[in-house]
Each structure stands twice: as structure tokens, then as C-alpha cells.
Design the sequence.
């Protein structure tokens, strides 16, 4: 216990010293035009890719009625072929859900409950994302990075933009951007160089007490991928039960039975 206390004490000292050093050497923040220029370059690069295959980790925070902040983690992969093919899979401690879209039909399989649903959604991936958000209440915040024009979507409500310098994400040198909207702050790390891919995004809610965050980190990224035949068509398992789109609860990134607060 004494050793642990000493470690905590030294950690506090280091934090204080670090804070002093930080105060003496403030971060050089560039103009918003620089941040928007980097964001535009990322958008141009991403939207020019005919096909993208990536893996990701994501974290979402909730604030309990007792003001305890709890984070839930997920991992997954996405395969996109523009303009109208998408396959996505996400696994967490409470859900294992996959989305298939072939340009005409969207299918969602909740492996955790062995249920699936399907609905007609003719159009592009952009239209599918809008349909899921507006018709079914699915937020899909990371999807804004993959639509046909990410820049247009991301800057639509930006009130302030800053270039924060460089950071390292999984060993890759990245340009660190910070933006402010009316009700959210969000940050983006874009890989520096000839392939300006989004490496990390953090969205902070300013309208919820405790300012919970959503974070997505791109772990791997491939372009020019040749999709296998039938990659975007869902064939339900024989044991799976078909339900209505509104009944597939585990599409959400949060468990339905969030932990309740209580006394120790």
C-alpha cells in the first residue's frame, strides 16, 4: 500500500511539473484555415478511393445518474465499395452485429440474439447512412469519415477550427485538428504525408453533464480492395429469427441494461 501511495504521489509530482512546463511553453495554435485545409485534403483523398477496407476500435462513454463516467469498448471492420456497397461488423462485450448493403437492400444481423432484419434501401451509401440515422435513430458518428464528401458534412456546423500541431497515433505521425460546433467539440488526427487518412476521431458532447466522449481509432486501412462475390449480400442462418428493423436492439453501441449506480 505504501509503495502504491508513493507511486501515486510521484505521479502527482510529475503531473504538476508537466503542467508547469506546459504553461511555460504554450502550444502554437495555427489559424482555422490550416485545419480546414488539412481536413479538405483528407476528404479529397478518402472520397477518391473506389474501395476501402479498414479495422477500428471505438469507445463510447455514458454518465450515470450518480455522475459516474463509464466507457464501453468495441472493435470492428468495414468494407466500402463506392457508391453503393457496404459491409460492417462490430463486436463488443454485449453485441455482435453486422450490416450488409448491396445498393438495394440493407440487412442487419444481431449474432448476440440470433436475430436479423432487412429493409429496402435503394441508393448510395450516403443515403443508407441518412436512412439509418433519420429513420432508425442510429447515430453512426464514424460514418461521416467515409461518405462521398466528408468535408462538406464535417464542416457544416463548425464554428471554430484550430490546427494543434502533430501527434503520434499507433506510430504514425498525424496532423492534430480541433473543431467546435454549437453542442459538440471534436478532434481529428489525420496521417501526415501522401495518404492523409483519418487515424483517430474524438467527439465530446457539451450538452451532457460530465462531457462524455465518443472515440474511434482506425487500426488498419487498405484501398483498391477487390471484394469477393456476394460480399455484400446477407444469407441468414437457418436458426436466426427475423424481426422488424425497430426490434433489433443490439445495433446500438451501448448495452440495453446500463449498470445502475449505488453506494459502496
Sequence:
Amino acid at each position: 500500500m505504501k509503495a502504491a501511495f508513493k507511486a501515486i504521489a510521484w505521479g502527482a509530482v510529475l503531473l504538476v511539473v508537466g503542467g508547469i512546463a506546459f504553461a511555460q511553453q504554450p502550444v502554437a495554435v495555427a489559424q482555422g484555415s490550416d485545419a480546414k485545409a488539412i481536413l479538405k485534403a483528407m476528404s479529397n483523398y478518402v472520397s477518391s478511393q473506389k474501395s476501402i477496407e479498414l479495422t477500428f476500435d471505438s469507445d463510447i462513454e455514458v454518465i450515470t445518474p450518480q455522475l459516474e463516467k463509464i466507457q464501453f469498448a468495441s472493435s470492428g471492420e468495414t468494407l466500402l465499395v463506392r457508391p453503393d456497397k457496404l459491409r460492417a461488423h462490430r463486436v463488443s462485450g454485449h453485441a455482435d452485429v453486422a450490416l450488409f448493403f448491396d445498393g438495394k437492400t440493407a440487412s442487419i444481423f444481431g449474432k448476440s440474439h440470433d436475430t436479423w432484419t432487412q429493409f429496402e434501401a435503394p441508393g448510395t451509401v450516403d443515403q443508407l447512412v441518412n436512412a439509418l440515422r433519420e429513420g432508425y435513430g442510429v447515430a453512426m458518428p464514424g460514418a461521416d469519415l467515409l461518405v462521398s464528401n466528408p468535408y462538406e458534412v464535417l464542416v457544416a456546423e463548425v464554428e471554430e477550427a484550430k490546427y494543434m500541431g502533430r501527434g503520434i497515433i499507433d506510430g504514425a505521425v498525424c496532423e492534430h485538428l480541433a473543431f467546435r460546433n454549437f453542442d459538440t467539440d471534436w478532434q481529428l488526427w489525420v496521417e501526415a504525408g501522401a495518404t492523409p487518412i483519418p487515424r483517430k476521431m474524438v467527439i465530446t458532447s457539451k450538452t451532457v453533464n460530465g462531457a462524455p466522449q465518443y472515440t474511434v481509432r482506425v487500426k488498419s486501412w487498405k484501398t483498391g480492395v477487390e471484394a469477393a462475390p456476394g460480399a455484400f449480400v446477407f444469407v441468414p442462418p437457418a436458426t436466426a429469427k427475423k424481426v422488424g428493423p425497430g426490434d433489433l436492439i443490439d445495433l446500438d453501441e451501448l448495452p440495453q441494461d446500463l449498470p445502475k449506480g449505488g453506494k459502496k
